[in-house]
Write a structure and sequence with these properties.
- The chain has one helix at residues 25-31; strands spanning 39-41, 47-49.
- It is an alpha+beta fold.
- The protein has a domain at 24-50.
- The longest helix is centred in the middle third of the chain and has 7 residues, at 25-31.
- The N and C termini lie far apart (68 Å).
- The model has no long low-confidence stretch (mean pLDDT 84).
């Protein structure tokens, strides 16, 4: 019974590791979309801020 292996030309190259960037708490909140104005549809289809 033969073992299956990939030929050298088909092997995946390891992805380069990116340097970890530490975000400030403010940047994280902005990325998550927190503290943004919230709009809902009101009477007659108009957008109203909540």
């Amino acid at each position: 019974m033969r073992t299956m292996h990939r030929p050298a030309r088909n092997q995946k190259e390891p992805k380069p590791k990116r340097a970890r960037k530490d975000f400030s708490e403010r940047e994280l909140r902005e990325l998550m979309g927190m503290d943004r104005p919230v709009y809902r549809r009101g009477k007659g289809g108009a957008f109203r801020q909540r």
